[in-house]
């Protein structure tokens, strides 16, 4: 480990660290535009210049210079100050003076660093060049005259997203960054380039001109668009969420977020349920809360009551519904609304045991019935990192573009019992083998997948390579709370009274009893219900969610529900009085304490450890996988379907529709 001095401070850094990292370890701030911790080193901008001894008597780019023993680094000498002023002067030669109207204003690296490290005036009086705008799709807005060619967006697209559709054309002063053929970038992670861009060249198209950063109230919460549990910050003004950006969590999402996570928020104010409805003569009519509760209480259910949890529901709502059903004499609970009925007697057997971060360490990976690129984009990026470390990837299922090379074995689940010799050999030589079972194979191939634990040697000291990939934010929390009927959702179909907690993906034609929908959007569930009770979305309530690896996380309320809508638990509490099965808590804190007492694992935030005790199942599987559960990445839930941005992404990026720009 090299030891060096930075402005007289001695620091020791890991082998392979750069001088820039050594400076940061010493507490020195080094300006930079092109350098990013998660991307390869480009050395383009030269803003990170420092003076190094021994070495040539000139400033050197600290981001590309390896740290070495006995180096002396100086970050504040007159030479360094003069060099940085010159670099900033060059970067601003062609930059337009449009800070007052730039969407990046207030959170712009170029603005901040030009004040801190630049000259007070420029010596260049020549005309500034202009660059035509580029089209990058419905997510990214471009004003390329501002671009300083840091190439962060190019490196992100190639290295993290795996979609090599952004690059540089021309040379010298004529260099431009563009999407190839100037078409929409097809990555489901494209919105991250907006965060990466240190100037206002790439900004958020849906958020353009909506607000300034100092106008917004920031709320830390958890994303529910998939089961990864991305840590996010919701920026709101008044009663509307205007923006969603990721927070850094190395164990979950690093600092990335999918486009669905970022931009589905404009669906939070559209197609909302803001008052109760009761079906009268076949049509839903507006009603008061008392009328809606009376209609439900009048149902003669005889204890035949069911609850189906949707994909976005928090643990508190599911627990309140469970206690209500218990008071009504029922235990018919289900969260797998699309009809899956795999064995849930062991939660370890349906958990992502390797953990999301642990995926990077795998050296042999078998994907079974999963399109990771759509089902969990931020797990897919981890597999790309594992491949860079030498991992070999095999896949069972219909061929699709995962953004990396995988050896496709076929789509027949029978392969799980007779894997090719090349796969067996690769796993025999692997120190950290890994299998990921997706929703496409879980229903019919769970047992056969569990047999792979023995045949492929997936469990070693300190390593469990068996993983089930869920796609719903509520799934693991629901399983911990018992939302898994023995025969799946078919066991609930005969219930005389059924509660649907934001469940919009159910086959409602199978439910012949009285249907109550508690949710936030007028989608499929509300259309099929006999009574509709307006609830709160994930942005409008505090809650607990458990991600696919069993990590307990909590989110906070950013805004209030619209109109007469209420938080789901409070609806269930008021309804319990009307049904004479009063819930034993009167506050959200009381609800949580009762939930913790029943499921202690939900009390502490962090990774829950499930004991490995897989059920003894018949380990055979057959049948050809025709496709994957997610048919359209951008329209997987009611919030997305209400979002104009997600509708545009679906039309353009999934269905190939073309949209003319204004100039055309």
Automatic annotation (TrEMBL):
Residues 216-272 form the 4Fe-4S Mo/W bis-MGD-type domain. Its EC number is 7.1.1.-. InterPro entries: 2Fe-2S_ferredoxin-like_sf, 2Fe-2S_ferredoxin-type, Mopterin_OxRdtase, Mopterin_OxRdtase_4Fe-4S_dom, NADH_UbQ_OxRdtase_75kDa_su_CS, NADH_UbQ_OxRdtase_ferredoxin, NADH_UbQ_OxRdtase_Gsu, NADH_UbQ_OxRdtase_Gsu_4Fe4S-bd. Residues 2-79 form the 2Fe-2S ferredoxin-type domain. SUPFAM superfamilies: 2Fe-2S ferredoxin-like (SSF54292), 4Fe-4S ferredoxins (SSF54862), Formate dehydrogenase/DMSO reductase, domains 1-3 (SSF53706). Keywords: 2Fe-2S, 4Fe-4S, Iron, Iron-sulfur, Metal-binding, NAD, Quinone, Translocase. It catalyses: a quinone + NADH + 5 H(+)(in) = a quinol + NAD(+) + 4 H(+)(out). Coiled coil: none annotated. The keyword Heme does not apply. PROSITE patterns: 2FE2S_FER_2, 4FE4S_HC3, 4FE4S_MOW_BIS_MGD, COMPLEX1_75K_1, COMPLEX1_75K_2, COMPLEX1_75K_3, PROKAR_LIPOPROTEIN. Binds 1 [2Fe-2S] cluster per subunit. The keyword NADP does not apply. Its cofactor is [2Fe-2S] cluster; [4Fe-4S] cluster. Residues 79-118 form the 4Fe-4S His(Cys)3-ligated-type domain. NCBIfam families: NuoG. NDH-1 shuttles electrons from NADH, via FMN and iron-sulfur (Fe-S) centers, to quinones in the respiratory chain. Couples the redox reaction to proton translocation (for every two electrons transferred, four hydrogen ions are translocated across the cytoplasmic membrane), and thus conserves the redox energy in a proton gradient. Belongs to the complex I 75 kDa subunit family. This is NADH-quinone oxidoreductase. It comes from Sphingomonas aurea. The lineage of its organism: Bacteria, Pseudomonadati, Pseudomonadota, Alphaproteobacteria, Sphingomonadales.
């Amino acid at each position: 480990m090299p030891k060096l001095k930075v402005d007289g401070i001695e620091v020791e850094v890991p082998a392979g660290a750069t001088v820039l990292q050594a400076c940061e370890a010493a507490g020195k701030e080094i300006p930079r535009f092109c350098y990013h911790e998660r991307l390869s080193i480009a050395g383009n901008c030269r803003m990170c210049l420092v003076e190094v001894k021994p070495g040539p008597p000139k400033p050197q780019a600290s981001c590309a210079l390896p740290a070495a023993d006995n180096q002396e680094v100086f970050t504040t000498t007159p030479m360094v100050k003069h060099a940085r002023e010159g670099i900033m002067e060059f970067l601003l030669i062609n930059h337009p003076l449009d800070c007052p109207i730039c969407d990046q204003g207030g959170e712009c690296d170029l603005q901040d660093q030009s004040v801190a490290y630049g000259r007070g005036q420029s010596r260049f009086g020549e005309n500034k060049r202009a660059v035509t705008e580029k089209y990058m799709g419905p997510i990214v807005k471009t004003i390329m005259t501002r671009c300083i060619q840091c190439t962060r967006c190019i490196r992100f697209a190639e290295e993290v997203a795996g979609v090599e559709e952004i690059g540089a054309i021309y040379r010298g002063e004529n260099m431009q960054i563009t999407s190839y053929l100037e078409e929409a970038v097809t990555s489901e992670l494209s919105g991250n380039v907006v965060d990466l861009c240190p100037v206002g060249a790439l900004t958020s198209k849906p958020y353009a001109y909506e607000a300034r950063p100092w106008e917004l109230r920031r709320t830390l919460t958890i994303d529910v668009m998939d089961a990864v549990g991305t840590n996010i910050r919701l920026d709101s003004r008044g009663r509307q969420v205007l923006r969603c950006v990721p927070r850094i969590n190395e164990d979950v999402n690093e600092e990335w977020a999918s486009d669905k996570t970022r931009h589905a928020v404009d669906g939070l104010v559209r197609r909302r349920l803001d008052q109760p409805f009761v079906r009268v003569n076949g049509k839903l009519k507006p009603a008061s809360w008392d009328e809606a509760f009376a209609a439900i209480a009048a149902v003669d259910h005889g204890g035949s009551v069911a609850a189906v949890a949707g994909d976005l529901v928090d643990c508190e709502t599911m627990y309140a519904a469970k206690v209500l059903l218990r008071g009504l004499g029922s235990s018919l609970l289900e969260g797998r609304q699309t009809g899956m009925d795999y064995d849930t007697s062991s939660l370890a057997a349906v958990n992502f045991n390797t953990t999301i971060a642990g995926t990077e360490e795998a050296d042999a990976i078998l994907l079974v019935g999963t399109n990771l690129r759509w089902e969990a984009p931020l797990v897919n990026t981890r597999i790309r990192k594992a491949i860079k470390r030498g991992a070999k990837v095999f896949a069972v299922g219909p061929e699709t573009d995962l953004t990396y090379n995988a050896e496709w074995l076929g789509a027949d689940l029978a392969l799980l019992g007779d894997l090719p010799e090349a796969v067996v050999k690769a796993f025999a030589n692997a120190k950290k083998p890994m299998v990921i079972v997706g929703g496409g194979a879980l229903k019919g191939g769970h047992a056969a997948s569990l047999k792979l634990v023995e045949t492929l040697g997936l469990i070693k000291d300190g390593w469990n390579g068996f993983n089930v990939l869920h796609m719903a934010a509520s799934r693991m929390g629901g399983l911990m709370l018992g939302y898994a009927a023995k025969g799946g959702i078919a066991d609930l179909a005969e219930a005389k009274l059924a509660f649907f907690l934001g469940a919009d993906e159910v086959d409602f034609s199978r439910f012949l009893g009285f249907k109550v929908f508690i949710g936030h959007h007028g989608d499929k569930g509300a259309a099929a219900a006999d009574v509709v009770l307006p609830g709160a979305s994930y942005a409008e309530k505090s809650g607990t969610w458990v991600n696919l690896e069993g990590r307990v996380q909590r989110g906070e309320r950013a805004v209030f529900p619209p109109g007469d809508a209420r938080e789901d638990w409070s609806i269930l509490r008021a309804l319990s009085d009307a049904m004479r099965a009063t819930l034993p808590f009167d506050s959200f804190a009381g609800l949580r304490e009762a939930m913790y007492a029943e499921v202690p694992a939900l009390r502490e935030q962090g990774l829950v450890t499930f004991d490995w005790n897989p059920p003894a199942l018949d380990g055979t599987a057959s049948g050809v996988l025709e496709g994957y559960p997610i048919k359209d990445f951008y329209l997987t839930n009611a919030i997305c379907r209400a979002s104009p941005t997600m509708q545009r992404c679906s039309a353009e990026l999934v269905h190939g529709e073309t949209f003319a720009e204004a100039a055309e």
